[in-house]
Amino acid sequence: MPITPKPRAAFWLKSVLAVLLITLADVIFFRQPIGANFGAYGVALILAVLVAAPAARRQPRMLAALAIAAGAALLSLEHPTFAMASLFVLALGVAVLSPRAPGADDVWPWAQRLTMAMLGGALGPLTDLRRLRAGRLRRRRGRAGLSRFSSLLLPLAGGLVFTALFAAANPLIAVMLETIRLPYPDMTRWLFWLLIGTAVWALLRPRGLRRTIAPPDGRGDLKVFGVTPTSLSLSLVVFNVLFAAQNGLDLAFLWGHAPLPVGVTLAEYAHRGAYLLIATAILAGAFVLVALRPGSTTAASPAVRRMVVLFVTQNVLLVASSVLRTLDYVEAYGLTQLRLSALAWMALVAVGLVLICVRLLQDRSSSWLINANATAAALVLVVVSLVDLGGVAATWNSRNAREIAGHGPRLDLCYLEALGPAALVPLTELEGRPLPQVQAEAVTSVRTRVITAVERRLSDWRTWSWRDARRLHAARTLIAHRPARPSQPPRNCDGQPSGAGSSYSAQEALTGAAQP
């Protein structure tokens, strides 16, 4: 369908906005680290949406979504995180798709709209170019442009031919032409423009679904070969027995601290099963969700319902044991951002299991279950965005290290250096504690490198963040109240003299892979 004259002005307005946003992204993002530039660009996107869709400003849901997106953009000025960026993108997507969506809707239809908007946005520019070509305006301009080009063809071609002949006959002209250097095309920048332009165009001209697929009802008996009320009842009996055996071992060795068999350490017992048991709990939850459906013959049985409650309770205990395993491993080998994220994920799995059980017992719909899980996930996303996970890990490691507390994991300076600005204050505090000379010199060297990197980031507004500014102020305050020390030889994070190289890579430091 061609673009008609009535919306043509809005179309060209969006084109101008897209060019401006691409230019702004090139200035503040291209080959630059992420900092305050993300929040500033987020505000620019929100303003562009308000300009491009003036009629939609009267929609309460769109204004609410834009307010959430603005809050996420402003919080990104404090410190940009992947979780906050995800929240911003989701809120902005809901805002631009709201004019095409019904008044009240659940998470499931919105997930479809957002997914199709992202997929359709990749082809959006091509679709709009095809529509432009179908209109008379592009056809007329095409003919006028061809006529103008034909008028320039002869002088351009003739000028190039005569220039080439004069350059061959006159060495002065040849030397002058050789000094002319045309700019080499920057393919990386062109690709960046293409990606930003596609994303911006998808935002200014969204293509959401007008009709969505209803969620699976998930009610009544599951008509699958081998799945009968008898088989489900027997499965619950078998599963409860197996889970009781596993939970019994955890209660004895993890919770009760019973002596382990010879050759098995607590760290090995704790770390080996933490993530596998979470996968087991997820699989068990999927079994209850798919096989034991509300309104089915099996779910109506009081005995089955009691076994389901027992089964879900055992799975929650399994998750709690996985949390304890992770905490025991932290006590032995230190805290990392990955382990903090794993603990948050475990809590989310436990909430999901409880919600599945509530849905079965209270005969709730599948939409209710999806909405409840999405709400829990959104709350976790917001909390993770606001909490400084790197700072929490660095503070815990610096205060509970064996060299400081007398027990616990060894001080891992390489991991603290890999955390970067998040470890600045803990490193500065650690520098004031009594440590062996080599280790004290290594702490000072790491702190110096980190504070230099933070100062460099804060010197450019694009990479500035309020959190880093507060960290630098706190570190400088601690240093100012400390007596001056004589200059010390620079060292690597592992204590080796600077320039000797370190066997500890940055990737190992961030993932904790170098720890046992």
Structure characteristics:
disordered N terminus, 0% strand, flat, 516 residues, mainly alpha
Structure description:
The chain has 516 residues and is mostly helical. Helix content is 71%, strand content 0%. The protein contains 20 helices and no strands. The protein has helices at 8-28, 36-52, 60-78, 82-97, 107-134, 136-169, 171-178, 187-204, 229-255, 266-291, 302-333, 337-362, 366-386, 389-400, 402-405, 413-419, 424-431, 437-458, 466-480, 506-511. Helix 10 packs parallel to helix 12 (337-362). The longest helix is centred in the N-terminal third of the chain and has 34 residues, at 136-169. It is flat. Mean pLDDT is 80; it is low at 1-5.
Described by its quaternary structure, the protein is single chain
Taking the alpha carbons of the first and last residues, their distance comes to 63 Å
Quick check: average pLDDT? 80
Largest sheet: none
Rg on CA atoms, Å = 31 Å
Strand percent estimate: under 5%
Give the overall shape, derived from the CA principal axes. Answer: flat
Any low-confidence stretches, pLDDT <50, length ≥5? 1-5
Q: Please state the structural category.
A: mainly alpha
> How much helical structure, as a percent, in the residues?
over 70%
Q: Give a count of the beta strands, DSSP E runs of length 2 or more.
A: 0
Number of helices: 20
Order of helices and strands: HHHHHHHHHHHHHHHHHHHH
